[in-house]
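Lab notebook, bench 4. Still working through the backlog of constructs that have no structural model yet. Next entry is a single chain of 248 residues. Request: give me the structure tokens for it.
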Amino acid sequence: MRLVRADGSSYPSIKFGGSAAPGYASGDAMAEMQRLAAKLPSGFDYAWTGQSLQEKLSGSQAVYLLALSLFCVFLCLAALYESWSIPLAVLLLVPTGVVGAVFAMLLRDLPNDVYFKVGLITVIGLTAKNAILIIEVAKDLVAQGRSVRDAALEACELRFRPIVMTSFAFILGVVPLAVATGASMNSQRAIGTGVLGGMVTATVLAVFATPLFYVLIASAFRGRARAMDAVDAPAILPRQSDVTSNAR
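Model written out:
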């Protein structure tokens, strides 16, 4: 028992700690503590400290940090390729990997903890890598005079084998993490399951979705560029002498 000052007053308090039981994440233990604390009589309150407080704060900021990271990736790709359409087409592929990671996590009833978020960031990077492999080749083919549609299809055909080989090599590499046992198995399973599910869906869907998104985005930006050129083009007016001669 000790005294804690808050809002200019002193209150008696008790500080205690613990850890989650095997098979449960720290988020599950904190949720159970909140459920029990809700049953306290009036006049009692609770507050998180230490690592629990940091976990609560980081959990509420995860969405904003993820959005900020995607925005930074978009700006880096835009500066690298000097184009707004290519980064947009790449980032549109990110949900294909995220959906697979979340589905695998729900299928195995794993918690959405910090280890799963680490795996999710890995999936986002690998999904973008697969999209870049296709879109970069398609961009070069368009520069050589191919149509956007033909360039996207040929790039997908050329990069299909490298994408499948590298992706499935990575998938097989994380299988031991997904089925880990013993000490720290919860963290290993969270990372491995998220990466495994995300890479499976990203690899399968990227082959079909990347050409589609690239054609749609590139065609839309090309149409907009033509419209802007038509608006900015100077009007060609006849000379005064030509008008006079025609009038005669």
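Notes after review: The helical segments are 26-37, 50-81, 85-91, 94-107, 114-143, 148-178, 185-232, 240-247. Residues 115 and 122 are 11 Å apart (CA to CA). Flag for follow-up if needed.
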